[in-house]
């Protein structure tokens, strides 16, 4: 059995308590929620936090999925299974259900959390691409108060975020706008694996014209998990396969994949184009009401 | 509501597995469940380098850890004469490294502490001064003139060569090739994979300082063989060693050999005077225990223009890792690779295998490979498809044209092996009928017109299992015969003691069924005892699909001995001559007078009673036997796989898999089907996703289940199984063994299907694993070679 190096453990009883504990325990303390990324890394002794602050008791405050005004709000402690099972999330943004169906396996989804996935900042994280496509906004809280950060600005590098050591992610907000459709496309070596590459797309149409678009990419070294050049080029264009393919090409040109056992650079770049195109096609079909 | 007559299950047929009563309730008892009073915990320090000299080891900080009792290094073992141990292939392997480390993950030091956490913490406190050496990770570079010599510990070893082996007639084969109309060659790699049982290896050693008796709870597929090896290695008297293999969570050949960790738990118990548990973690298991395959093969096939296969010529470079520790009959350095001629009637065949050392973990024979038959079948079944590609022939028709015919059995191959029985065309035809082969080809043609990629893969295999005849087969001199003991209690309940050991195969059920079938006893009334050397007769254990062919035969024969003995007792009970009795399924009865008869239960009571028995009959009802198989048994099967390939992503979806297996008489068809299901999933895994890869520095790239992938139900279609039954003529119940059939036969069916799908792109061969990236590469004109298994 793999076992972690020694650490201390605290259980937070409220958001305020969690933040206070993080402040007291210092920068080598880590928040643990589902633990499905952090604990394996600790067992392999790749991660060695001095202390864990367990926030699993904060579900009443942090685990809700609801519509608030024009926003879909997803609590950071919502489990993957909650998001997959959420009718309101699926109704407004089918991309969530697309993605959650292919994230890990049911055991992991039952306990792994949305906020934990984003804060872990794995360069192959599926939800990072989903929230990038939707241009979601994270609410962070520290001792000084609350601040809002676009998910596109949350990640500063592999396993690194803008969160201060004593900041906690509270929730994520996505603006609900009319005329939209969204979809997620992933290639994996085996179900439950991290993606070889994956792309998420959200499209808002005016008739047959792309009014607005968001494209998220993961596992291909796209800065902030996004494809801004492809988005800019696609806005105002006709919503056709041709323009989607062109956007896919642009997305591929601007990402920076690295070779590993999942595949070589050119293959991953090809997938960035192919999967972006497929996600855009499905998102547009959904925007038109042609596909569930 | 219909009422079903409640009758206890007896004999062959589908019945629930007896062992599942405990296993599905979480009440199994695995090595890691063993907790003895005062038990200590061991952990190994392993090498981060694939090849490095050890300048010094400083254990002082680890020893200063408050919960550490001892730290043992190779130097400590050297003093005891235990630094090296023999392997099952007449080589030696370091227990703990002394001079240098030879692969990443090799055992360097052993910490014994009060608890597992402290042992792990203290391992990190050991300081080793390594001096890195040049690495040989590529078998093809192992014999280069400038290659560093890995085994400089062996006197006279000046290169990385281990052995040369050949089979078949070279001159005859060369002549056939020289005159053949068509000759096709292909380089085929069977990459290094790992059997990855979900339970890792481990042991609890308990050396009683008073009695001098060692009890070793261990993950062993062969407890009796292990006991003898420990006696030979450690100089412990064999009657003072008791090896207990409790429930085993999968073996697949991985738990046949002896690992340094087992030895260290024993040394630890001797040193501390307390029980010591050692259980490795997943990364340790995948990095250091017996891998499988790593066969670099060049096949050549000779044929006529109209598709009559004439000959096969094969050259193999076998990567055995840093120590030659393959677990197989000792005189068979390439296992049973002789059967590379497969299921075909050839004029000539020849093969050479060269084994080499590399800076990688030792092993090679595991993962249900049937002693290298997996590699042999993969080679020949790929070569037949390569020939079909060149001849533009249908792969099923080409096979049908060349299969050994039923009237040719017993069939002696060009490598001298005698296949016992079979009707190959019938099995292939059944598979084609089940698949709807012609319709599938039509569908494929239509899809190709539309630019869609669909493939149909065919594979036919012949297995050789049940090792084996003791005059040919032994492990370190121990003949591969197995014993069985059967005792019928006075009330007619039975206890069977066998030498083989289940790792999930269901022995406790099927062996009870064999006894029940012979004696008419209900399955539930027969207890099967196994996995404890103090409680069971000697035998070589479970691997190579040998349990049913060898131990199953012993079980049937020992039950027949009981039946014969019972006949004499029955004759005394009925006051008739034994010659006047006949066996009627569950009782001896008087010929012509069915009213007069005695069941085994009645006879058992009488055998223990005051009944006067005939002269020379001892009483009680028990028997022992040892079974020495006259030949191997040869199960076979025809597999057809249907895949769809996404040409935009290279993704492969296995749509259907039809598996027709002939394993002779089936004792419990449900268990047979379960074995086949598992092996088919293995095949999908190997074909599409599995490889133990290394980089040039010998770094292991697959030491977790995130890197080394096991297939899930979502990669597997709903298996479509069929069967034909050709009993083995020399096995007491006609059974042939099935444990490895599907693992042997299925990888090639999947690979052949993928290559069939992408045939329009001019791809004739591609090496496993056919990941999306590899398939996309092939579609884009890139040859798929996983060669070194380094991406």
What does this structure look like?
The complex is a heterodimer of chains A (292) and B (791). Chain A has 292 residues and is an alpha+beta fold. Chain A folds into three domains: 8-58, Uridine Diphospho-n-acetylenolpyruvylglucosamine Reductase, domain 2 (2-Layer Sandwich), CATH 3.30.43; 59-175, Uridine Diphospho-n-acetylenolpyruvylglucosamine Reductase, domain 3, CATH 3.30.465; 180-287, CO dehydrogenase flavoprotein, C-terminal domain (Enolase-like, domain 1, 2-Layer Sandwich). Chain A has twelve helices and 13 strands. Chain A has a five-stranded antiparallel β-sheet with strand order 4-5-10-6-7. A three-stranded parallel β-sheet of chain A has the order 1-3-2, with helices on one face. In chain A, a hairpin with a 2-residue loop joins strand 4 (65-68) and strand 5. In chain A, helix 10 runs antiparallel to helix 11 and helix 11 packs antiparallel against helix 12. The longest helix of chain A has 23 residues, at 265-287. Chain A is globular. The N and C termini of chain A lie far apart (44 Å). The mean pLDDT of chain A is 97. By secondary structure, chain B is of the alpha+beta class. Among the domains of chain B are: 420-464 and 633-791, Aldehyde oxidase/xanthine dehydrogenase, molybdopterin binding domain (Aldehyde Oxidoreductase, domain 4), CATH 3.30.365.10; 481-627, Aldehyde Oxidoreductase, domain 4, CATH 3.30.365.10. Chain B has 18 helices and 33 strands. In chain B, the strands form nine sheets. Chain B has a seven-stranded mixed β-sheet, with helices on both faces. In chain B, strands 9, 10, 15, 16, 17 and 18 form a six-stranded mixed β-sheet that branches. In chain B, helix 13 (507-519) runs parallel beside helix 14, helix 14 (547-574) packs across helix 15 (600-607) and helix 16 packs across helix 17 (741-757). The longest helix of chain B has 28 residues, at 547-574. Mean pLDDT of chain B is 96; it is low at 787-791. Classes of the chains: A alpha+beta (292), B alpha+beta (791). The A-B interface holds A 1-3, 5-6, 44-45, 105, 187, 189-194, 196, 259-264, 267, 270-271, 274-275, 278 and B 32, 116-117, 120-121, 124, 279, 281-283, 648-651, 688-689, 693, 701-702, 704, 706-707, 709-712, 714-715, 771-773, 776-777, 791.
